[in-house]
Structures are given as structure tokens and as C-alpha cells.
Known about the structure:
With about 220 residues, the chain is an alpha+beta fold. It has one domain (about 25-200). About 20% of the residues lie in helices and about 40% in strands. It has helices at about 1-20, 40-55, 195-200, and strands at about 25, 60-65, 70-75, 85-95, 100-110, 115-120, 125-130, 135-140, 145, 150-155, 160-165, 170-175, 180-190, 195. The strands form four sheets. It has a four-stranded antiparallel β-sheet with strand order 1-12-7-6, with no helix packed on it. A hairpin with a 4-residue loop joins strand 10 (about 150-155) and strand 11 (about 160-165). It is globular, with a radius of gyration of 19 Å. The chain starts with a helix and ends in a 19-residue tail after the last helix.
Amino acid sequence: MKKNSCMAFLLALLVVVALVGCSAGAPNGTSDKTSGTTSDQTILQEATGWFKEQTTYYEIISSEVCGDQIVFLTGTKNPGTDDYQNLQAFVVKQADGAYEVTAMKDGERGVSAGFSAHVLTTDTLTIVFGDTSDSVYDFPNDRRLDVDFTKINILLAQGETRTEEIVGNAPYLLVFDEVLEIADLEFIDAELSVKYSTFFSENLMESATSDDISNIFE
């Protein structure tokens, strides 16, 4: 009986591991996230090399591998400036040894509000990306408050809440290998929490489809 119980536990554990996929958020900053497997590392290296051959306009900030798809968080700068003006999420797919962009979303940074959030959905992925700064604007008191956002609560339409860790004052990339209906986002500091809907009236899902990619590198 003990042997059968152990076998059942191991099988259940394997199922849970198989279901995890790339549902956790990718670290922000300049580091790349891979699953640690040789296959994922190879795909990421090849896709990164391919992407850089296509463009120097979009700078890769971070990335994540989801099966045969690679998600890049990129940024664009105005000439003569060091800070990113806009951020983008690219979905690159591998097929028969070749790579192609299958989806892309461009979004502004949250300079005045102190944070930004954009959603890109495909048939199989939900991508949340943006950035946070070291302060947010307090509208009622006309002042800025120092913050260090370390988590994001993802509030789903059906009532579920998922929490993802981020690094404050930096771009972030969260990739889920499923299609989610996001109702709101809540940025969490040690002493303060701020909802996306408090600062922005736009529904996050209204423009979650891909931008035009027909001439993306031209």
C-alpha cells in the first residue's frame, strides 16, 4: 500500500510540474528568463540572434520561452536619449527552424502616473508588460509619493486574483500560457497599493489584440 501511495504521489507531482509551463512572470531588467533546459536556451539564443539581425530599433530588455514561442520585452529610445520612451512585447514563433513575429504590442511608459500596463493576447498566451517608477502621483494632494512596487495583483474577470513578483523602478514582463480575461491590475508597495483603474479609464482588454505586424521591421 505504501508503494502504491508513493507512486500516486509522484505521478500527481509530475502532472503539476507539467502544467506549470511559462505561467510565471519573467524577471524585469536586462536579464533573460529561460526554463534552464538546454533546448530552451538554444531556442532563446537563436531567436535573439534572429531578432537582432532584423532590427536595431527595438532593444531587447528581457525574454521568455514558451514552447515554440519566444516573448521579447523591448524598448525604443529617441535619438540622443538614454531612457526608453516606449515599450513593446513581441511574440516570435519557431517553425521548421525559422523564426517569425506572430504578434506585437506597443505601449507608452507610465512617466506621469508612475507605472504603466499593457496587455497582449494571442490564441494561447496572455502577456502583461509595462514599467514602474520610484514614485506615483497623488492626485487629491497634488504631490508625488515614493514607492517601490515589488508585486502585481492580477485581478481576473471571474474573481480570481493572481500575484506576481516584479522588480521596482524597471520594465516588467509577465507571460501566461493561457488566455486570461484581466479586469484590473494592482501594484503593491510595502505601504501602498495602487490599481490601474484608479489612474486609467481604458479597459485593459479593449486593445489587447496585436498591432499591425505586416511591415514591422521596415
